[in-house]
Amino acid sequence: MTNPAFKWKNFAPEIILWCLRWYGLTPMSYANLSDMLAERGVSVNHSTIYRWFMEYAPALRKKLRRHQFIRADSLWQLDETYVKVKGKWHYLYRAINKQGETLDFYFSQKRNKNAAYQFLKLCLRYYDVDTQPKTLNTDKHSSYAHAISRLKKEGRLQADVEQWQVKYLNNGIESDHAPIKKLVVSSGGFKIRKRAWSTIEEFESLRMLNKGQFDFWLRHNEGKTLIRERSAFMNRLFNVEVIYQ
Q1: pLDDT for 45-80, tens place per residue?
Q2: How far apart (Å, rounded) are the C-alpha atoms in residues 55 and 65?
Q3: SS3 call for 41
Q4: Which among 215, 219, 241, 239 has a CA at the least distance from the CA of 68?
Q5: What's the pLDDT score for residue 7?
Q6: How far apart are CA 146 and CA 159, in angstroms?
Q7: Are 210 and 22 in contact (CB under 8 A)?
Q8: 183 phi/psi in degrees, rounded to 5
Q9: What angle do CA 78, 200, 132 make, to 5 degrees?
Q10: Which residues have C-beta within 8 Å of that of residue 153, sequence separation ≥ 6?
Q11: Strand arrangement, sheet containing 162-164
Q12: What is the overall mean pLDDT for the chain?
């Protein structure tokens, strides 16, 4: 029976998922990926790989979201980095916890009070009072203070949550931007905001997988098989079972 998620596709589901993983984790172009597949006897045009990425990236994010642990953590690090779309700067807001795990991310055309508010509200949507952080460490942009104050007034954020602006405490998230930025640069840039967002969703989702944030769900988590097990886990999210020899 045909897997409904891959209906009408001319390639096996595992080949499509290979492309998602490879492009989402390795700095390469769609043309590079097409050449890699050609070496393995699979002829796929780079524009086809691009369409796969646009179609399945949002789906992967939703599937991984259902398996993401919601755990209490005393400190969150919040920051934003720049991404250019059609010659104009956009802003990728990102949050990690003390362990370096990605909590959430938000893509905005603006860097202002409303963008900071929407981002923080997004981060908090799965956290109840008992699992909210005690401290939010941000940069010194005034938009975060406004967003935190507004969320407290709305009852979405505990009144005793503190905002810190300690530069060295955000070293972790500033370093964590680098792999995502490297992938963005290798993509050759974006011309359409919607497509930029879909691509970034894939980069961020696979980065979370590669960080080990979903290793609890693996069938085996021994070091020597970890990469294959993470790949197999992603396949299972799409109901694709591949037997590795």
Answers
A1: 999 999 999 999 999 999 999 999 988 899 999 999
A2: 17
A3: coil
A4: 215
A5: 86
A6: 14
A7: no
A8: -70, -40
A9: 30
A10: none
A11: 102-108, 88-97, 75-85, 135-137, 162-164
A12: 92
Distance CA 23, CA 25 (A): 6
3-class DSSP assignment, residue 94: strand
pLDDT tens digits for 152-206? 999 999 999 999 999 999 999 999 999 999 999 988 889 999 999 999 999 999 9
The pTM assigned to this predicted structure is: 0.92
125-131's contacts with Cβ under 8 Å and 24+ in sequence apart are 126/70, 127/70, 129/158, 130/72, 131/70, 131/71, 131/72, 131/73
How high is the pLDDT of residue 188?
A: 85
Q: Encoding tokens for residue 162?
A: 């503190």
**Amino acid making up residue 3:** N
